[in-house]
Write a structure and sequence with these properties.
Blueprint lengths: L4 H17 L2 H7 L3 H7 L4 H4 L7 H26 L3 H24 L11 H14 L4 E4 L2 E5 H18 L6 H22 L4 H13 L1
Antiparallel strand pairs: 1-2
Helix pairs in contact: 1-2, 1-5, 5-6, 5-7, 6-7, 6-9, 7-9, 8-9
Length: 212
């Protein structure tokens, strides 16, 4: 049986995270540390930080979420992008890690006290791309009960933006916010560039059907 790209990403992330849990050298080498990018051009950290996590709970939450949303999006890529599907999916995931951290980097490029880790930015991108494709599907997460995706999305982004502005915890809410936005943008651009599927029309038509 062929493993899906989502499952392969989950396995690699889990293995790398468990290694980093007990190996501080690996953790320090892979973590997103803005001054290392600024002063030593270690741009790889934008990507590698997505394969390590703070603890088992952090890892489990991200990977379980990816497991529920990733295969559906991967299936869509296969249906509409055909031969380019796997390549596009990998580019989507990797670029989501990078783009979701850009605002964080610009804000903390010389902040020696700041570091970040986890796949949350890319996972958010996967969630929101899936929501944009299937806006009537029920979505719920922690403090938000299940509701249609097109309702969940704006509520989640608003809450995330407020929490990012407050910055009173150790969670990189900015990565969640920009990852989600980027997920929609990448999905839309990819559809227009590589398929005949119109994601904007599809989204509007599905939302209209909900109210009728």
């Amino acid at each position: 049986m062929q493993l899906s790209l989502t499952l392969i990403i989950i396995i690699i992330t889990a293995i790398t995270s468990f290694i980093a849990f007990s190996n501080q050298t690996v953790m320090e080498y892979l973590i997103f540390y803005p001054p290392a990018v600024t002063n030593r051009n270690q741009w790889y950290r934008f990507i590698t930080c997505g394969f390590i996590h703070a603890d088992i709970a952090h890892l489990a939450f991200n990977m379980i979420t990816l497991y529920f949303f990733g295969p559906a999006l991967e299936t869509f890529f296969g249906l509409y992008f055909e031969g380019a599907a796997k390549t596009l999916y990998l580019i989507f995931y990797a670029s989501s890690l990078f783009v979701s951290l850009l605002p964080t980097y610009l804000k903390n490029k010389n902040n020696a006290r700041y570091s970040s880790l986890g796949a949350s930015g890319a996972v958010s991108a996967v969630i929101f791309a899936t929501i944009f494709y299937s806006p009537l599907s029920k979505v719920g997460i922690l403090f938000l009960p299940e509701m249609p995706g097109f309702i969940f999305g704006p509520i989640y982004l608003i809450i995330t933006a407020v929490m990012a502005k407050r910055g009173r915890d150790n969670i990189n809410h900015s990565a969640h916010l920009w990852g989600g936005i980027y997920g929609i943008v990448f999905f839309t651009v990819a559809c227009f560039a590589f398929s005949d599927f119109n994601p904007l029309t599809n989204f509007v038509d599905q939302v209209k059907s909900y109210f009728h």
